[in-house]
């Protein structure tokens, strides 16, 4: 059988066109791939510059980061003290404060401890002494207001006692507040946001106080 002869020039070009296309190098396509890769690399580099990793940010600004952490810590402690004061009406809820032992409440440089056990006034003084403290002394109105809020309805012994006709704190200083002390008994306790006096041999919970340790 003889081969077929193609005499039409147009048909000949159509048959040869795919082979010529396959034989040509694909330069434009390779160039486009390189451009796309360069673009992605550039975008990644720009993102790293705009949004550095946390570790890289700390290495660049160590002092600023440390100051920010310290400020946040102080803010948390301040909020904790505020919550303890505002929410303390329900009882002597303990709040951890730097410079005060565990289960003590710190305020204005003084640590306070609200007992869970009951004792006479003298026994409360002895137990506070074992903790390196004394029955609570609250000479200013801010301290009195704090203790009133935290004591709630319970009657807590304070470090205030009648000596003769006058009331004296445990450190020997005279009671000079305008806040009245109800009744004329010897030992003073705090209940219902009022100072009251009662028999020293009665058993009540007690409040201890001592200076806050330096930080």
Succession of helices and strands: HHHHEEHEHEEEEEE
CATH fold call of the domain at 88-211: Mannose-Binding Protein A, Chain A
Question: Could you estimate the helical fraction of the residues in percent?
Answer: 40-55%
- Which CATH architecture of the domain at 88-211? Roll
Radius of gyration: 41 Å
Proportion of residues in β-strands = 15-25%
Shape: elongated
State the distance separating the first and last CA atoms: 110 Å
Count of separate DSSP helical elements: 6
Would you mind describing this structure in some detail?
The chain has 215 residues and is of the alpha+beta class. Helix content is 43%, strand content 18%. It has a domain at 88-211: Mannose-Binding Protein A, subunit A (Mannose-Binding Protein A, Chain A), CATH 3.10.100.10. The protein contains six helices and nine strands, in the order ααααββαβαββββββ. The strands form two sheets. It has a five-stranded mixed sheet with strand order 5-4-7-8-6. It is elongated. Mean pLDDT is 75; it is low at 1-8, 10-16, 18-25 and 85-95.
Q: How are the elements arranged and paired?
A:
Layout: H1 9-23, H2 27-50, H3 54-60, H4 62-86, E1 105-107, E2 110-114, H5 121-130, E3 134-135, H6 141-151, E4 156-163, E5 166-169, E6 181-182, E7 187-191, E8 194-198, E9 207-211
Parallel strand pairs: 6-8
Antiparallel strand pairs: 1-2, 2-9, 3-9, 4-5, 4-7, 7-8
């Amino acid at each position: 059988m003889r081969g077929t002869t193609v005499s039409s020039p147009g048909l000949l070009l159509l048959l040869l066109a795919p082979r010529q296309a396959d034989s040509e190098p694909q330069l434009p396509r390779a160039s486009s791939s390189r451009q796309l890769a360069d673009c992605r690399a550039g975008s990644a580099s720009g993102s790293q510059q705009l949004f550095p990793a946390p570790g890289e940010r700390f290495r660049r600004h160590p002092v600023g980061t440390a100051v920010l952490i310290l400020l946040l810590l102080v803010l948390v402690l301040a909020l904790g003290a505020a919550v303890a004061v505002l929410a303390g009406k329900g009882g002597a809820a303990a709040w951890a404060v730097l410079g005060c032992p565990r289960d003590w409440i710190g305020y204005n440089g003084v640590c306070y401890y609200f007992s869970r056990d009951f004792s006479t006034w003298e026994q409360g003084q002895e137990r506070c002494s074992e903790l390196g403290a004394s029955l609570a002394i609250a000479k200013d109105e801010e301290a009195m207001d704090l203790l009133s809020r935290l004591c709630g309805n319970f009657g807590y012994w304070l470090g205030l006692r009648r000596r003769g006709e006058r009331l004296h704190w445990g450190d020997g200083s005279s009671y000079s507040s305008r806040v009245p002390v109800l009744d004329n008994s010897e030992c003073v306790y705090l209940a219902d946001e009022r100072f009251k006096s009662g028999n020293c041999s009665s058993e009540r919970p007690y409040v201890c106080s001592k200076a806050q340790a330096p930080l």
